[in-house]
Design goal:
single chain; six-stranded antiparallel sheet; mainly beta; three-stranded antiparallel sheet; flat; about 190 residues
Length: about 190
């Protein structure tokens, strides 16, 4: 299993109808995502400069009409999830515990490019009450977690970037409202 993360920013300046001068900077991360220990990975910081040639001349941006405001769209998302989790205190073991959950998030469209979602995540962690030797404990309500999440969504054409910050309302290890979690989706 390989985890690849590439985050960057790119800017272009038009020189004439056929040429653009661009500059970019990105951060790239490769690793095994913590699925095995030790985590073997590396980070790359990548600045770049580009000269872009348009075979057909670039359209005149001043002649392009501004987009109309979209009609408001409010949506309810229900998501089912499943994964494996390795407990930090047993990271040198090969014990992985299943996690299954459901999320319900209500999105409100605030502009053409931005929506805000808020909702709840309910998960069942089979390893949440694991014994000191790493074996699963009894399956009961102690394995349940409930998180409340705020999830902004940035929309650029067909590309959507969704991030979220949540706080556990119910969690065996953290108590109530004392631990946050994050979510990032592209």
């Amino acid at each position: 299993m390989t985890v690849h993360l590439n985050i960057g920013i790119n800017a272009c300046y038009p020189l004439n109808k056929y040429l653009d001068l661009g500059a970019a900077f990105s951060f790239i991360h490769f690793s095994n995502g913590g699925f095995e220990r030790p985590i073997r990975g590396f980070n790359i910081y990548s600045p770049s400069v580009e000269l872009k040639y348009h075979i057909n001349q670039r359209p005149n941006a001043r002649e392009i009409e501004s987009p109309r405001r979209l009609e408001r769209s409010n949506d309810l998302y229900l998501m089912l999830g499943y994964g494996d989790h390795q407990l930090v205190e047993h990271e040198l073991d090969t014990n992985y515990f299943a996690i299954a959950g459901i999320s319900a998030i209500y999105f409100t469209q605030l502009s053409n490019a931005f929506r805000l979602g808020y909702g709840a995540d309910m998960n069942y962690w089979w390893g949440l009450n694991a014994r000191p030797d790493g074996t699963p404990g009894p399956y009961f309500f102690d394995n349940m977690t409930l998180g409340l999440i705020l999830q902004p969504e940035l929309i650029i054409d067909r590309f959507t970037l969704v991030g979220g910050i949540g706080i556990y309302a119910v969690h065996l290890d953290y108590g109530n409202f004392s631990q946050t979690y994050q979510r990032l989706m592209v």
